[in-house]
Amino acid sequence: MKIPLYPSGVRQWLSALARIIFLSLLLITAMLFFVHMPSSSFIGPLPSLTLQEQQTSELLRKHVYTLARDIGPRNIWRTSSMPATVAYLEKVLLDLGYAVRKQEFSAYNITAINLEVEITGSLKPEEIVVIGAHYDTVPDSPGANDNGSGVAALLELARLLADTIPDRTIRLVAFANEESPFFLSEDMGSRHYARQARKQQENIVAMLSLETMGYYSDVPVSQQYPFPFSLFYPDTADFIGFVSNVRSRHLVRGAIASFRHHAQFPSEGIAVPSFITGIAWSDHYSFWQEGYPAIMVTDTAFYRYPHYHSYADTPEKLDYKRLSRVVTGLSHTILDLATQK
């Protein structure tokens, strides 16, 4: 019997059309669940930097140039650059008045170090908000954006938050070993940190991974996405992204709502399954593995940055004024996350 390839008759055509409409509506509903975020992204000309934002911009530039130009590529096989990086980060944090804790661990029979500082919560110190950034790079890359920008943001957030009195405890952590060959493995610095936190039954209520944050463009079609997300997001790379898996959807929505309330800067958010390319590609992944809510704050890295993971990832490529706006907004967002609900 020959099976018809197309519907025949009015009823069959109507039935096929109804199924197509139903599946289309189902797909649109699912996509809106992933991409819809509270409030609205900032639109329009950016206001002038405040005096505080100008200072933040200058300090961000200083940190990135020190890491990417003065120290250079950073991984555990470079026996001078990693200790120099740890020493620089430790000095900046000590000068801000923090007590710096070191978490040492072994990877490939080489000692690696995570650095942690803490602002103890005044009302619920057992509830912890972690802000983290990895300080290593891929081989032969100066790593100005990946991830000098994230580390600079971490240091500047430490300065902006130093005199605050949050309800919950805030921890700022610089992680070793995020890049290959440690990427998504048990030897990531953040993996060691998150695993130890779970072992000690610590109550981490939110984790923000600061990852590749400093490159922006006003040129149309400068921003890329995997299909079909280009149908829902702008094609200009002038925004900061808030990214999570579905399980951390509540956190990413709360974080971007706070950021949009405090910051006059474009922002986009998404909460999708972690198998989507890039969604799990940083230290927040390690916290997901331990069941903690975690998100990534990023300029979207390889989806916009042409010098990603290359020798050309150098400090002059970054926009420190825009990054300062992001960091200032994040300082308020973190305090909101650290406020008793």
Major beta sheet, strand line-up: 1-2-4-3-5-8-6-7
Radius of gyration: 22 Å
Mean pLDDT: 93
Helix content: 25-40%
The CATH C-level class name: Alpha Beta
Helix count equals: 8
CATH architecture: 3-Layer(aba) Sandwich
Q: What is the fold named in CATH at topology level?
A: Aminopeptidase
Task: Report the CATH superfamily.
Answer: Zn peptidases
Structural class: alpha/beta
- Total count of strands: 8
Secondary structure layout plus pairing:
Elements: H1 10-35, H2 51-71, H3 81-95, E1 101-107, E2 110-119, E3 124-134, H4 144-161, E4 168-175, H5 189-199, E5 203-211, E6 240-244, H6 249-262, E7 267-271, H7 284-289, E8 294-298, H8 320-337
Parallel strand pairs: 3-4, 3-5, 5-8, 6-7
Antiparallel strand pairs: 1-2, 2-4, 6-8
Helix pairs in contact: 2-4, 2-8, 4-8, 6-8
Describe the structure.
It is a single chain. The chain has 341 residues and is of the alpha/beta class. It has one domain: Aminopeptidase, CATH 3.40.630. 38% of the residues lie in helices and 18% in strands. It is globular, with a radius of gyration of 22 Å.
Characteristics of this structure?
single chain, 341 residues, alpha/beta, eight-stranded mixed β-sheet, 8 helices, 38% helix
What does this entry show, briefly?
The protein has 341 residues and is α/β, with parallel strands linked by helices. It has helices at 10-35, 51-71, 81-95, 144-161, 189-199, 249-262, 284-289, 320-337; strands at 101-107, 110-119, 124-134, 168-175, 203-211, 240-244, 267-271, 294-298.
